[in-house]
Amino acid sequence: MPARTQDGFVTANGLRLHYRRWSSPADNPELPPIVLLHGLASSVHIWNLVAPLLSTYGYPVIALDQRGHGESEKPASGYDFDSILADDRAAINALEIEHPVVVGHSWGAMVALQFATQRVDQVKALVLVDGATNQLSARPGWSREQAMKDLAPPRFAGTSRENFLSYANYWCYVGSAYL
User: Fold this and answer.
1) What is the 3-state secondary structure (H, E, C) of the chain?
2) Superfamily of domain 4-176 in the CATH hierarchy
3) pLDDT higher than threshold 80 for residue 176
4) Which of 22, 118, 126, 144 is deepest in the core (most CB within 10 A)?
5) Which residues pair with 37 in a beta bridge?
6) What percent of the chain has pLDDT over 70?
């Protein structure tokens, strides 16, 4: 049976943050919840393929649209790590999530890593997917707009199947050189 999705909002750190929860008949209260954190210029939808699969194994799965992303509020300030982390902590508390596996993708991996280092006793496990290891806001001339431009995922709309497959084959070849 396919996973069910539920979208909702939680007030965290004074902001209205969007979340998406996946559940299935296989939900197992013995398994830790999985919290998914998206990358910069992304949203909960980046997890739309993997989250339902995790859910079918019995894991409660929740993805957050972090400050300024997806359907969450987009204030003019507060994009430093301390604010983002405070938002995520408040959202996890408001959703009554205890001892989660925290999974972060790209910029979200940096957030997840920092979150886990600050909450060692509250995080069951940590998974970093394609994550960087530096804080972009520490760069000279930092701006949210520049980061969103520089770190945006590639746009493949309009790319022919042949060209797309040549890109994929190239990156699989390059990536295998590092294994």
Assistant:
1) CCCEEEEEEEEECCEEEEEEEEECCCCCCCCCCEEEECCCCCCHHHHCCHHHHHHHCCCCEEEECCCCCCCCCCCCCCCCHHHHHHHHHHHHHHCCCCCCEEEEECHHHHHHHHHHHHCHHHCCEEEEECCCCCCHHHCCCCCHHHHHHHCCCCCCCCCCHHHHHHHHHHHHHHHHCCC
2) Alpha/Beta hydrolase fold, catalytic domain (3.40.50.1820)
3) no
4) 22
5) 64, 104
6) 85
